[in-house]
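Predict structure. Input: Protein kinase domain-containing protein, 302 residues.
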Amino acid sequence: MDKINVSVTINMENSSLESNDESSVHTDEIAHRPKYKILEEIGRGGFGRIYKVYNRHNDGMYALKRLCFEGEFQDNKYISAEVYCLSKFKHPNIIILEEFILKPNRLYIIMEYAEYGNIEQYVTSNHKISTSDIMQFFSQLTSAVHYSHSQNIAHRDITPSNILLTSKFDTKLADWGLATPCGVDRSNPILSDDYLGDYRYQAPEVIRCTPFDPLPTDIWSLGSILYFMLTCNPPFEGSETTILHNQTNVGIILPETIVNSNDKLENAIVKTIKSLMVVDTNERPIIETVSKRVSSIISRLE
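Output follows.
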């Protein structure tokens, strides 16, 4: 996989962070009222922990992601990918970067704070999202992925936990650590050769661990997100072997209540899921086609 080259401005100021619990947060206790005060841990992933922080300069709340590394952060392709995407991307449905703070062997990414957490938390706590809300959320997510693909970058880690919800119920696609360049020539893509992420939402070609075109994998993942919002469950669960077998031999199984529904919008959502989660990558639609389909469905709601 090609590495994303990074050239951004990093804040080297040593008085930016203060922690309530130095031992658990592992930030240096900075004297004399630093800019950010760490309040609590709100999440963690494969590459770092996330905290809610208070900005004393503007009285605002933000999210802080702490990433640890050895050597230079530019040498870590996953940290480089996150830094590049957050610093370069400008889209209403992609998480907004506030600033970077660099310390020895640690990089802190300060981002906008999403008051309602992520889609996974929201669905788990509310159990059921209306079909109209599902399509509004999905329309925003599709727009973010459309923008990313137009910049020749595939996200590769689209999961419910990486889609955040603001107080205005706008979705924000976050966690760009697995993002990768996919090349300008769609007929000759740059193949990915690392096989990370949550396999419950990943495409079969990722689980097979053979080099793959990352753009169609994002399309599959979009379908899996739509499935999750509709059913409150991942489309596939179990071991890697079980998931791959069910993806390629069994296919998508939807609850009978949804399959037999007379709701036209729900039927349109089911049809969209099936069109995106096709095993053959050549038969999956490109993001431009997905966007048009979603716009058509949304127009029926207005």
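The chain has two domains: 36-112, 117-299.
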